[in-house]
Amino acid sequence: MFVVRCQDKPDHQHVRLDNRSDHLAFLNAHLETLVLAGPLLSDDRQTMIGSLLVFNIADRAALDAVLAADPYAKAGLFESVTVTPFKKVLP
């Protein structure tokens, strides 16, 4: 498993909103490996500032291929993307 944390570029909320439908369709097409996904929020708990995704996928190369094809990534939304291997313990 891998945890993916994507931080949006400042002042790119319009890019997120313009590509949201395509991004969600993309994620729905990867449900066989996607464990969970959702937006990271600012302190106001309303403004989306990034994404958190967890994938149960074979290896880092396969994950990188999926991430590169994400409409958000293609649109240049992210300032940074951090990938960390993860081991689920609970529940």
Automatic annotation (TrEMBL):
InterPro entries hit by this protein: Dimeric_a/b-barrel (IPR011008), Sec-metab_biosynth-assoc (IPR051807), YCII (IPR005545)
Q: Which Pfam families match?
A: YCII
Transmembrane regions listed in the UniProt entry: none
- What SUPFAM superfamilies does the database record attribute to this sequence? Dimeric alpha+beta barrel
List residues of the YCII-related domain. 2-87
Q: Into which family does the record put it?
A: Belongs to the YciI family.
Record protein name field = YCII-related domain-containing protein
